Amino acid sequence: MKKILLIFGTRPEAIKMAPLVKEFRKYPEQFETKVCVTAQHRQMLDQVLEFFEVAPDYDLNLMRPGQNLYQLTADIITELKPVLETFRPDYVFVHGDTTTSTVSALASFYAGTCICHIEAGLRTYNKHAPFPEEINRQLTGRMTDIHFAPTAGARANLLSEKVFGQVEITGNTVIDALFFATEKLKNYSDAEIETLKNTVDFSKRIILVTGHRRENFGDGFIHICQALLEIAQNPDVEILYPVHLNPNVQAPVHSLLENVNNIRLIAPLAYPAFVWLMEKSYLILTDSGGIQEEAPSLGKPVLVMRETTERPEAVEAGTVKLVGTDRDKIVSETIRLLQDAQYYADMQKIHNPYGDGRAVQRIVEIIKNHHKI
Ligand code: UD1
Ligand code: UDP
């Protein structure tokens, strides 16, 4: 019996780890599977846990309003010690690039556990963008024993860095989660979706917006909001913006965009409502990592409000375009997509560079066949 501990803390980690939790739990005779949430996020994490019906075995409940990286780092490493010492997992799974993932990998290294990194090998090789995620990924990569790279490019990055351990290509579990949600949505509705149906004018073209990157705090967010104000002057569009709960995002967005015609600021949506809304959207403006991976699978063009991305595959395929936080560039690219049907059609192609929905099966198979050290 192999003991598996999956540790995560934020919304995107939960979305991408929930299918893996479910897959491990299909084999109770082979795996004792436990989930530890740091709750680096609280409400935005709980929304995901509820939808995927994942109940944590350990909940560190660490989120503090307006938290900082120092305190969060210290809290996670301190609180994980008793969990690791009590459960004594054979394998710890961490995901991606958050403070939760890197600090959990470090704690697991101290505990002498085999570290498995999901969504390994994504790189910009720019120390400051995304901040602190690029360095989080590189640090986690140094400590990892089994790297689960979503794409060949991610694997090549890891091999060029001469990381320790084995590197496997599995696809990204985000597509497993997305397929689970789109399948469930065929016979599913909830209060959030009904509210959207009753309050949004879907005869207009919907532009869906999200943003939360630390390197965009301050001027970046101000320029993004100024661009949205200009785009909203077009009477045929409705801008829907579920605003991230980080106070550094809430403050500028609400002060600049509250009560503007054709702009609707809403609370973060639970995953099914968000996927439902992505499907109904004409175009997505975002700085999110996960949305850059999901939208090409849904055939939705994405303008990425970042200078650089660790997810080059969709940019190379032409379904995602980097526009940075330059106000004029965001406006001109959006207007072009609204007015130039051929340009829109070229970006709209359904494209799945990140996975085929079977990543978690591959990951569990690899662990079944892995010999514990
Ligand atoms: C974090 C991750 C980022 C990831 C993002 C996903 C780090 C350093 N950052 O950024 O990599 O892309 O999550 O969204 O790991 N808050 C709430 N409720 C919630 C969630 C957040 O109120 O459910 C507020 C709190 O005031 C909290 C603040 O947002 O202190 C910041 O949360 P934090 O996780 O530190 O940063 P994010 O910007 O969410
Ligand atoms: N998402 C969601 N509700 C929202 C906005 C986003 O469920 O209101 C989902 C989205 O589908 C994607 C993930 O959250 O799977 C992205 O999270 P986020 O942008 O916070 O983090 P990142 O991916 O940039 O790390």
Describe this structure in words.
The protein is an alpha/beta fold and 373 residues long. It folds into two domains: 2-172 and 356-368, 3-Layer(aba) Sandwich (Rossmann fold); 191-348, 3-Layer(aba) Sandwich (Rossmann fold), CATH 3.40.50. Helix content is 48%, strand content 16%. It has 16 helices and 13 strands. The chain has helices spanning 11-24, 43-52, 69-87, 99-111, 133-143, 152-160, 173-185, 191-199, 219-231, 247-257, 271-280, 289-298, 312-317, 327-339, 341-347, 359-368; strands at 2-8, 31-37, 58-59, 91-95, 114-118, 146-149, 166-169, 205-210, 237-242, 263-266, 283-286, 302-304, 320-322. It has a seven-stranded parallel β-sheet, with helices on both faces. It has a six-stranded parallel β-sheet with strand order 10-9-8-11-12-13, sandwiched between helices. Helix 1 (11-24) packs parallel to helix 2 (43-52). The radius of gyration is 20 Å and the shape is globular. The mean pLDDT is 97. Bound molecules: uridine-diphosphate-N-acetylglucosamine and uridine-5'-diphosphate (UDP). Uridine-5'-diphosphate (UDP) binds next to helix 1, helix 11 and helix 12.
Order of helices and strands: EHEHEHEHEHEHEHHEHEHEHEHEHEHHH
The CATH topology of the largest domain is given as Rossmann fold
pLDDT < 50 runs, ≥5 residues:
none
- Based on CA inertia axes, which overall geometry fits? globular
The set of bound ligands, ions and cofactors reads: uridine-diphosphate-N-acetylglucosamine, uridine-5'-diphosphate
Strand order of the largest sheet: 3-2-1-4-5-6-7
What's the gyration radius in Å? Answer: 20 Å
Rounded average pLDDT: 97
The share of residues in helices is 40-55%
Helix and strand content put the structural class at alpha/beta
Gap from first CA to last CA? 14 Å
Work out the helix count: 16
Q: Output the CATH homologous superfamily of the largest domain.
A: Glycogen Phosphorylase B
CATH architecture descriptor name of the largest domain: 3-Layer(aba) Sandwich
What is the CATH C-level name of the largest domain?
A: Alpha Beta
Total DSSP E strands: 13
User: How many domain modules?
Assistant: 2
